[in-house]
Amino acid sequence: GQQVMQIPQYQHVQEGEDFTTYCNSSTTLSNIQWYKQRPGGHPVFLIQLVKSGEVKKQKRLTFQFGEAKKNSSLHITATQTTDVGTYFCAGGSQGNLIFGKGTKLSVKP
Amino acid sequence: DTAVSQTPKYLVTQMGNDKSIKCEQNLGHDTMYWYKQDSKKFLKIMFSYNNKELIINETVPNRFSPKSPDKAHLNLHINSLELGDSAVYFCASSQGRTVNYGYTFGSGTRLTVV
């Protein structure tokens, strides 16, 4: 079935380092959403990108949607311990929202 | 006020039992979902309802039966529970029927089958 691949599966960084997670789809997506799930918590909606080549920023977080609408990335500048959690992308395709498997971020103080 | 509330938060039960999980949203959203998150954190869609109408029914065992008495409620009943059903079950809701709206998730129900 339709899949959205997300890499890396895990990322360990030192506080202050940057972090990036990538999502790829084999087919064109209508939109991409990003969610954050803190340890023991539930996924929380962060943002949605719809347009080809779109870039959005939320403080230290930068979200990009590829020109072909098949890939996306989330970049965190200067990570903090509050950034720990699992980041999921979710791509819209044929009326369904397909979640990637997530990237688990740990931050060492 | 909790936007999407699920009960119970934890559920420990024996194999073969039948159990239900309830979900309610007070956001006025049209669409509600059930997701299963396994131990590897993979989020898998199970069901989706729009205004009480079933619109997504992924390949799940027919031991799982959703019920939506109104658009603010979506319950999940599970018959003959198996060890492999152990997971966290999330209810979610979104405005509208398309994928163009962000989902609001409940806090989850951690089901443990022993």
List the helices and strands and how they pair.
The complex is a heterodimer of chains A (109) and B (114).
Chain A: E1 4-7, E2 10-14, E3 19-25, E4 31-37, E5 44-49, E6 55-58, E7 61-65, E8 71-76, E9 85-93, E10 96-99, E11 103-108
Parallel strand pairs in A: 2-11
Antiparallel strand pairs in A: 1-3, 3-8, 4-5, 4-9, 6-7, 7-8, 9-10, 9-11
Chain B: E1 4-7, E2 10-13, E3 19-25, E4 31-37, E5 43-50, E6 53-57, E7 64-70, E8 73-78, E9 87-94, E10 104-105, E11 109-113
Parallel strand pairs in B: 2-11
Antiparallel strand pairs in B: 1-3, 3-8, 4-5, 4-9, 5-6, 7-8, 9-10, 9-11
Please describe the structure with a list of short key phrases separated by commas or semicolons.
heterodimer, A: 109 residues, mainly beta, six-stranded mixed β-sheet, five-stranded antiparallel β-sheet, 11 strands, globular, B: 114 residues, seven-stranded mixed β-sheet, four-stranded antiparallel β-sheet, 55% strand
Number of helices of chain A: 0
Q: Could you tell me the mean pLDDT of chain B?
A: 92
> Shape of chain A from CA axes?
globular
Q: Kindly provide the radius of gyration of chain A, computed on alpha-carbon positions and rounded to a whole number of angstroms.
A: 13 Å
Number of helices of chain B: 0
Largest interface: A-B, 24 and 20 residues
pLDDT < 50 runs, ≥5 residues of chain A: none
